[in-house]
Amino acid sequence: MISFLRDLYVQIPGGYSDNRLNAAYVFGGFPLLMDTLHTNFGVSIDGCFEVDFSGFQSVIDILGGVDIEMTSKEAKTINIGTEAGVYHLMGQRPLLIRASERLTMTFTEPSVSAMCCRQSIPSSARVMRRT
Predict the structure, then answer these.
(1) Which one of 10, 26, 78, 108 has the fewest beta carbons within 10 angstroms of its own beta carbon?
(2) How far out from the chain centre does Cα 9 lie?
(3) Confidence at residue 79, expressed as pLDDT on a 0 to 100 scale
């Protein structure tokens, strides 16, 4: 799993001017986003899907959750604990991170949900899986 910051300034193929990575999705959906990733980073994406918040929670649950390393302040903010350390989050918990944009997370293992959370969980979580 690779995570790309959505605000990376990249070359968008197809006659578009250079712009942020997330602009490729806005201009041409997943096909243009996949072309942009391939053009700039040599990464080929074999499949994509898009989920809303409810679907995002389901994906996290299906994957068995996500382990996230948090500071004590971060853990307190989402009411999961008081100590710094690795916390296993399921379902709705990772969405609480979105409610507190001042949190900075370090993920201990790659996962679909880690990529989305790392990018502050956009309004509609866009998930790409490379097979």
Answers:
(1) 26
(2) 17
(3) 85
Query: In whole angstroms, what is the distance from residue 15 CA to residue 120 CA?
Result: 29
Q: Identify whether the C-beta of residue 115 lies closer than 8 Å to the C-beta of residue 48.
A: no
The number of angstroms, rounded, from the C-alpha of 8 to the middle of its chain's C-alpha atoms is: 14
| Structure-block tokens of residue 46 | 């074999």
β-sheet bridge partners, residue 47: 129
Q: What is the pLDDT of residues 76-94, one digit of tens each?
A: 888 889 999 998 888 777 7
Q: What is the dihedral of CA 63, 66, 4, 1, to 10 degrees?
A: -50
Q: How many CB atoms lie within 10 A of CB 131?
A: 5
- DSSP code of 7? T
Extended strands (E) in 43-101: 47-50, 66-70, 85-89
Residues in the chain, total: 131
